[in-house]
């Protein structure tokens, strides 16, 4: 059974860079696309971007200028960086797997989410 | 950018049929999927590729997609189905979510 685990600092200072890692257990990150999704308090789901194990990426137009994703197949992990954060980046951040393999149609496995708060 | 529109809230009586819509320009030309999210929990995929149910999702959940509207239908709605529901599609290398619908089972 595939499981995803987000990790990273729960508190980030405004103007600094938010960094999170998603570790995949029970399956290889190869063959799948992987996304980051966030949810601000009381709000809906917001897609941040996805990455393929090869390093190919696609980012949300609204966040593209501040987002970088990377993948480390040797550690079976992928990562998210969001630069120049503000209070509006405070959210629960989820990592998720796309299925079927090689497509970005739906996200069938999600991490439990990690809360990131941006402080001033 | 592509947008998906959902009603903010839907109410249904137990045992009745709940219908949640998701509208987008020519949405029927894309695959739509649906997620259920309960308070404090991660989203759960309940419908993918318009009308397919993942393993473990009850048969009372069904989906359709045609024209400009995708629809999630819950037949014989139970109290346990009370949650937020999000539609999602994929357009031009970008994933798009609807704003979400809160389903209340009265």
Please describe what this structure looks like:
The complex is a heterodimer of chains A (120) and B (106). Helix content of chain A is 0%, strand content 55%. In chain A, strands 2, 4, 5, 6, 9, 10 and 11 form a seven-stranded mixed β-sheet that branches. Chain A is globular and about 40 Å long. The mean pLDDT of chain A is 95. Chain B has 106 residues and is mainly β. Chain B starts with 8 loop residues before the first strand and ends with a strand. Chains A and B meet through strand 5, strand 9 and strand 10 of A and strand 3, strand 7 and strand 8 of B.
What's the rounded overall pLDDT mean of chain A? 95
* Approximate strand percentage of chain A: over 45%
Cα separation of the termini of chain B: 36 Å
Shape of chain B: globular
Which structural class best describes the helix and strand composition of chain B?
A: mainly beta
DSSP strand count of chain A? 11
Provide the descriptors you would attach to this structure in a database record:
heterodimer, A: 120 residues, mainly beta, 7-stranded mixed β-sheet, 4-stranded antiparallel β-sheet, 0% helix, globular, B: 106 residues, 6-stranded mixed β-sheet, 3-stranded antiparallel β-sheet, 9 strands
Quick summary:
Chain A is an all-beta fold and 120 residues long. Chain A is built from no helices and eleven strands.
Helix-strand layout with pairing:
The complex is a heterodimer of chains A (120) and B (106).
Chain A (H helix, E strand, L loop, with lengths): L2 E5 L3 E3 L4 E8 L7 E7 L5 E8 L4 E3 L7 E6 L4 E6 L8 E9 L6 E5 L3 E6 L1
Chain B lengths: L8 E4 L5 E6 L8 E6 L6 E4 L13 E6 L2 E6 L8 E9 L2 E4 L3 E5 L1
Parallel strand pairs in B: 1-9
Antiparallel strand pairs in B: 2-6, 3-4, 3-7, 5-6, 7-8, 7-9
């Amino acid at each position: 059974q595939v499981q995803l685990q987000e990790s990273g600092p729960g508190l980030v200072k405004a103007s600094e860079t938010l960094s999170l890692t998603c570790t995949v257990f029970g399956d290889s990150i190869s063959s799948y696309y992987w996304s980051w999704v966030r949810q601000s308090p009381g709000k809906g789901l917001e897609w941040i971007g996805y990455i393929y194990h090869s390093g190919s990426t696609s980012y949300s137009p609204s966040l593209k200028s501040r987002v970088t994703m990377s993948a480390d197949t040797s550690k079976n992990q992928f990562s998210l960086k969001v630069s120049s954060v503000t209070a509006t980046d405070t959210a629960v951040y989820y990592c998720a797997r796309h299925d079927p393999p090689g497509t970005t149609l739906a996200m069938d496995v999600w991490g439990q989410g990690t809360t990131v708060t941006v402080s001033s | 950018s592509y947008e998906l529109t959902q009603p903010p809230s839907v109410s249904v009586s137990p045992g009745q049929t709940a219908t949640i819509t998701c509208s987008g320009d020519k949405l029927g030309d894309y695959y739509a999927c649906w997620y259920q999210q309960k308070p404090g929990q991660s989203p759960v995929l309940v419908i993918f590729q318009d009308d397919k149910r993942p393993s473990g999702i009850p048969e009372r959940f069904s989906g359709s997609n045609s024209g400009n509207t995708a629809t999630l239908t819950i037949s014989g709605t139970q109290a346990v189905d009370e949650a937020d529901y999000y539609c999602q599609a994929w357009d031009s290398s970008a994933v798009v979510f609807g704003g979400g619908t809160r389903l209340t089972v009265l």
